[in-house]
Each structure stands twice: as structure tokens, then as C-alpha cells.
Backbone:
């Protein structure tokens, strides 16, 4: 049913002043427009207008999930520890997992995700291949105890998410549903009015080997992206770094120790030796969970991608200040030559052709030049260790990559048997043999999507909602609520627009016109119908289109039909 709202009865406490704690556009405008309020760090209460937009996003997601045969359900937020112990994630998930005990002393957590619960739910119920595939989804609250919650809804601790899980007997079945989800997620982004890209990503804590993130393009986005005109796009953490380096020397050189007093950074070293930073080698130290030392070597002008490093050496941790002394090594002067015994040396593949490495000497105030792999030290692994940067070659077509920033609004994963094997979730195949389910996992950040929409649809005056997400589609603004001519016309237009199926709000507050105009733009009503005495005397009303700022004088008798046509056309564009 279309909404017919009146501002006099609607709790929408707008703010004139900029909230001091708000760092990004969406955070600032959600607070100023009276759509949410902070309850605690990273935890927000949604007020009526904000929650209306949340529900509209949820409805779009529901429609797309239902259209591909996924069935809605609801799982508990509080989850027993034993399920997480079965999957092996209770100890390894990290401090973001909020743990608690009940009155009997049993361990629970607040669910940051629901792989364990859904796997436990289906493992004793889905028994035959004939019952597969099955796809289930929920829209629920999640909690992740972020160390530094910031940017409002973009990095909160409590948030609303749609998560779906699918169960399959074959890889072909999983791939088909995964492809359906990818298409559905693209439609969701389109219907939200987002400019977006699907990007190759890392699976992180969820697991699995195949995953795609859906990124809303925005300067405020925390994720760095690289992309190419050929269609390739990836999160910088997951992108392959294809770098063309020219070796500093065409032939090998003798190993020489150089006194480099007070030189600890690559910039200092390059300046001291008169070299290009890319012709020096940066060595970074880490430790394994077993306590072994690992040196990562990479070009001096590039950054280590820790996610790539962890794939070479699982569960590796970079050393902190105290660790250097315990290993007897010296920060700023590390290198593969003369490294402590049994140190693992992992080098970036771009250094393979470098015949004269400039590295730390593992001795304070000294570096080495002319270090040669195979002669002076051994490399245990060559790998892509670099964080991709703009200008690197596209791994698909070879053209230079471009940079962008994005907000992750959704992600899809092929989990394979990661959870079904560890949790004993099996079905009986056509031969009567027990097989682990192949699983998929698919998430949409509902509240994060709300923030992403605002980041892309806002200006200096406030929000400029697409109609698909706006708390109401049309606002009727009478300039004199006590005028015997203006008030009844405004009331009639408001009623007729609602009867025509439009979500409509009437600003019947006894406020100055300037206050109403400012609030209308701040809140972001897509279409604003202004009713004034002067216009009515000429048989017309004014329509303002929030997104463009265009103002149109409409004959009073045509106003409802004209506005209805505009809204329905925009609805069709986002459907």
C-alpha cells in the first residue's frame, strides 16, 4: 500500500549543524536528515524515515532472491560456540567475534555470519541428492566487533545483512546457482540506482576459492580498486600485480658492504646511494604460528600484500617492535644475505631478473649491494607479493590499469566443502554413498547499501534519492498551511497522489517556506510539489525535481497525472 504521510505527525528531527563525528557524506546526511541516531560506537538506531528506506532496500533484495528460487527463513543472532568449534573458526576468527556466556557458563557468540548455523540446520534434514539443490536466505542483524568503527554505516559493528546459502550435489549445479546470484546481485545494484563494478576479490574469513565483490564506486570507499577498459576489475588486495621492471644491472656484480649510517627507510637508502627506489629491495619480517622467521623481499617502491603473503605462508604475522629483538634482527637493515638460520625467504617474482640486489646487511648502519640470488642467498619461494597499483599491466589484456575507490555492498562465494566436511554435513548420492554438500554463500549489506546510495546521490543541500529507495516519492509543500485556498488544494493533491499509488508526504507544518524547502532537499524527496497562492491564482503549481534541480510550472488539473507519470517512469527504470 502506498504511504500517505504528514510531516506534522512524522518524527523526523532534522539538524541544522554538521555532526562533528561524521566523516563521510552518508554519515553526515543520515544524521542531519533525522534518519538515524548513534547509540554506541558503530551502532545506530534507525528513525522512521531511515527505516522506510531500509525496508525498501530489503524488498528489492527479497524480490530478486525469490525470483531465482531462494527461500526466505530466519536464523538466531546468538549462536552456540560448539558450532563454531566444529567448523574450526571459534579460535581463529579473531577479536571481531563477540563472545559471551549464558547463566550456565556456556559459550555463545553474536553472529557476524551464519555459515555454521545454516550448515547445522540442514545436515540432518537434507539427506538425498533428489532434494538438491536448495537455496535459503535471511535478512537479519549481524554483529562484528570492529576495532575502529567509523564512517557511519560503512564500517559499523551492528548492521543489517541479507545472507543466502545454497547446497548442491555437483559443481555444475553450484556454478549455475552462483551465476544466477551474480546476475541477481547486478539487478539489485541497478535497482538501487548504484554505479557499480563486479570485482575479483579475496574470500577472507568466509573461505572458498571463487568470489566476486560488487563495489559501488565512491571516493569515500575504503576499498581500492584497479580496473581496465577490457572489463577486468579487482580489489587491489586480490588483483594480480603485473609489473614490468628493468633490472638495475645487466650482469652480476660483486657483493659489497656499504656503511649507511642512520639510513633506515627505502627513501633514505635510495637517496644515500643515488639509486631509483625500485632498484632497491625492501625486506619485511614476519613469523609463522610455529615461531619460524620469514623474510618477504620486494621492490623498494612497492607495498607488500599481506593477503597474498598469507597464501604462501598461512597464518603468518608481521613482526612488532618487540619481536625484532627476540629474533636478534634489526629493523631497517634486513636482507636475505646472512639471515638468521632457517629463515624462510619469499621474494616477489619481479625480482627474478634483478642481478644486483641492494638489501640490508642484517647489521645496524650497513647495507649490501650486488647481492645475487643463488650465489649469495637462496630464495625458498617466488610469488606475486605486491599490492596492485594503477599503471600495472592488466592481467587480461596488458593495458595499464586505472584506479578507483569503492564501497563493497555485496559479495558472492563458492565455498565448496569447507563447512560441510568440517561439520559432517552430507547427503546420499545416486549410488547410495555419503557425499559432503557443495555450498555457496551470498551476502548483501542492506544498511551499507543505504549508505552507498547516499554517497552517490547527494549534493551540498542533502540527499537526492532515487525513487526506489526514497522514504517517500513525492512531497507536497503548501507555503501557507492556514490559507483557505492553499491548504485544501495541498490536502487534495496529497490524497490524490497517494490514491494513484505514490508514496506521498504532506508538509503540513506551520513553518516558513525556507524551512520547508531546506528540509525537503535535506531529506531528499525526489519530486516536490510546491503549492502557493500566487501560482494557484494562475491555476498552476510548481514541481521541483530533486535530482536535477529542474523546476516546472504545471496546470493544477494536470499535476497529479504528470507527477504520477514521472514517478512510474523512474520506477520502471529501477525495476
Residues:
Amino acid at each position: 500500500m502506498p504511504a500517505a504521510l504528514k510531516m506534522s505527525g512524522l518524527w523526523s528531527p532534522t539538524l541544522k549543524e554538521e555532526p562533528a563525528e561524521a566523516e563521510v557524506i552518508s554519515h553526515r546526511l543520515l544524521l542531519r536528515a533525522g534518519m538515524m541516531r548513534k547509540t554506541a560506537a558503530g551502532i545506530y538506531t534507525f528513525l522512521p524515515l531511515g527505516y522506510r528506506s531500509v525496508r525498501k532496500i530489503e524488498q528489492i533484495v527479497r524480490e530478486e532472491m525469490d525470483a531465482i528460487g531462494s527461500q526466505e527463513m530466519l536464523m538466531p543472532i546468538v549462536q552456540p560456540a560448539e558450532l563454531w568449534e566444529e567448523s574450526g573458526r571459534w579460535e581463529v576468527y579473531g577479536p571481531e567475534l563477540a563472545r559471551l556466556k549464558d547463566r550456565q557458563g556456556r559459550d555463545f557468540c553474536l553472529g557476524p555470519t551464519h555459515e555454521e548455523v545454516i550448515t547445522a540446520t540442514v545436515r540432518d534434514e537434507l539427506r538425498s541428492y533428489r532434494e538438491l539443490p536448495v537455496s535459503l536466505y535471511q535478512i537479519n542483524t549481524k554483529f562484528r566487533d570492529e576495532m575502529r568503527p567509523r564512517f557511519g554505516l560503512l564500517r559499523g559493528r551492528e548492521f543489517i545483512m541479507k545472507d543466502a546459502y545454497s547446497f548442491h550435489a555437483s559443481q555444475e549445479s553450484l556454478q549455475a546457482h552462483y551465476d544466477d546470484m551474480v546476475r541477481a546481485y547486478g539487478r539489485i545494484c541497478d535497482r538501487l540506482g548504484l554505479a557499480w563494478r563486479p570485482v575479483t576479490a579475496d574470500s577472507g574469513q568466509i573461505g572458498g576459492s571463487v568470489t566476486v565483490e560488487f563495489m559501488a564506486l565512491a571516493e569515500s570507499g575504503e576499498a581500492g580498486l584497479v580496473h581496465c577498459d577490457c572489463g577486468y576489475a579487482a580489489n587491489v588486495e586480490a588483483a594480480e600485480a603485473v609489473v614490468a621492471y628493468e633490472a638495475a644491472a645487466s650482469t652480476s656484480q660483486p657483493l659489497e658492504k656499504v656503511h649507511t649510517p642512520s639510513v633506515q627507510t627505502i627513501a633514505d637508502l635510495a637517496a644515500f646511494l643515488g639509486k631509483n627506489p625500485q632498484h632497491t629491495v625492501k625486506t619485511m619480517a614476519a613469523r609463522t604460528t610455529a615461531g619460524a622467521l620469514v623474510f618477504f623481499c620486494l621492490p623498494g617502491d612497492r607495498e607488500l600484500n599481506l593477503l597474498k603473503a598469507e597464501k604462501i605462508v598461512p597464518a603468518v604475522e608481521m613482526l612488532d617492535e618487540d619481536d625484532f629483538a627476540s629474533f636478534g634482527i634489526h629493523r631497517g637493515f634486513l636482507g636475505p644475505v646472512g639471515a638468521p638460520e632457517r629463515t624462510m625467504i619469499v621474494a616477489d617474482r619481479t625480482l627474478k631478473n634483478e642481478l644486483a640486489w641492494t638489501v640490508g646487511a642484517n647489521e645496524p648502519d650497513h647495507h649490501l649491494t650486488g647481492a645475487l640470488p643463488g650465489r649469495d642467498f637462496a630464495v625458498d619461494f617466488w610469488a606475486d607479493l605486491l599490492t596492485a597499483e594503477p599503471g600495472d599491466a592488466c592481467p587480461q589484456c596488458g593495458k595499464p590499469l586505472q584506479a578507483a575507490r569503492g564501497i563493497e555492498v555485496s559479495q558472492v562465494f563458492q565455498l565448496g566443502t569447507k563447512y560441510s566436511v568440517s561439520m559432517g554435513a552430507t547427503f546420499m548420492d545416486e549410488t547410495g554413498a555419503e557425499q559432503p554438500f557443495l555450498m555457496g554463500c551470498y551476502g548483501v549489506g542492506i544498511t551499507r547499501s543505504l549508505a552507498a546510495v547516499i554517497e552517490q546521490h547527494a549534493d551540498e543541500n542533502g540527499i537526492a534519492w532515487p525513487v526506489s529507495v526514497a522514504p517517500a516519492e513525492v512531497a507536497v509543500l503548501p507555503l501557507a498551511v492556514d490559507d483557505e485556498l492553499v491548504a485544501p488544494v495541498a490536502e487534495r493533491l496529497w490524497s490524490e497522489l497517494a490514491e494513484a499509488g505514490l508514496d506521498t508526504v504532506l508538509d503540513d507544518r506551520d513553518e516558513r517556506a525556507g524551512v520547508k524547502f531546506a528540509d525537503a532537499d535535506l531529506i531528499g524527496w525526489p519530486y516536490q510539489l510546491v503549492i502557493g497562492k500566487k501560482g494557484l491564482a494562475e491555476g498552476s503549481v510548481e514541481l521541483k525535481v530533486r535530482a536535477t534541480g529542474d523546476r516546472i510550472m504545471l496546470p493544477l488539473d494536470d499535476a497529479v497525472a504528470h507527477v504520477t507519470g514521472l514517478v512510474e517512469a523512474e520506477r520502471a527504470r529501477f525495476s
The domain at 472-573 is CATH 3.40.50.800 (Rossmann fold). The radius of gyration is 29 Å. The chain has 14 helices and 32 strands.
